[in-house]
Write a structure and sequence with these properties.
The protein is of the alpha+beta class. It folds into 2 domains: about 1-40, no CATH class; about 50-185, 2-Layer Sandwich (GTP Cyclohydrolase I, domain 2), CATH 3.30.1130.10. The protein is built from 8 helices and 7 strands. The strands form 2 sheets. It has a 5-stranded mixed β-sheet, with helices on both faces. Strands 1-4 form a two-stranded antiparallel ribbon. A hairpin with a 5-residue loop joins β2 and β3. α1 packs across α2 and α4 (about 100-110) runs antiparallel to α5. The chain is elongated and about 60 Å long. The mean pLDDT is about 95.
Length: about 190
């Protein structure tokens, strides 16, 4: 299987007009295949595996926010990277999830061929299904190389997506609280 996968990259190199046997390119097919496997490892992971043993009973019922979770993904339309930060918030309803597991969920969905809109929704739905909180809010801000290095070539544009459920959608004060916290402190730019 490995050699067949590498041959696909050799053929791609040939088709763009390069010699895959040139010194600098001889190991490129193997490296490229390994990189693609790494960047799409989210297909071999599941929410259940990631959250296994990290859901806890709790009477805490205020906002929980894990912000500025950096991620790297591949645009499914051009196979070019997009990258940025995700903010994942929820209001518990008797259960909380381990902090690192939230970041692992973001990584799992990011490490697939994606569009940002779907990734945002998948993260929120995974949190909702796993712990049934009073509400979930996921905001994702990213830069897309498919827009930066080809097409319109806009270097400073960012895309922001959100998926909001439960109390964040129903109670404007809860959503306002989240937005105030996000604005309150400096956060790294993408």
């Amino acid at each position: 299987m490995m050699l067949e996968d590498e041959e696909l990259y050799r053929e791609l190199i040939r088709r763009i007009g390069e010699d895959p046997e040139r010194e600098g390119l001889q190991k490129t097919p193997s490296r490229a295949m390994e990189a693609l496997r790494f960047m799409t490892q989210g297909y071999s992971e599941s929410v259940e595996e990631i959250l296994n043993g990290a859901i806890f009973e709790s009477d805490y019922n205020d906002l929980v926010l894990v912000r500025d979770i950096e991620f790297y993904s591949l645009c499914e339309h051009h196979l070019l990277p997009f990258f940025g930060v995700a903010h994942v918030a929820y209001v518990p309803n008797g259960r909380i999830v381990g902090l690192s597991k939230v970041a692992r969920l973001v990584n799992m969905f990011a490490r697939r061929l994606q569009v940002q809109e779907r990734m945002t929704q998948q993260i929120a739905e995974a949190m909702q299904n796993a712990i049934s909180p009073r509400g979930v809010a996921v905001l994702v801000e990213a830069q897309h190389l498919c827009m930066m290095i080809r097409g319109v070539q806009k270097q400073n544009s960012r895309m922001i997506t959100s998926h909001i459920t439960g109390c964040f959608r129903e109670d404007p004060h809860r959503m306002s609280e989240l937005m105030d916290i996000l604005k309150a402190s400096d956060r790294p730019t993408v």
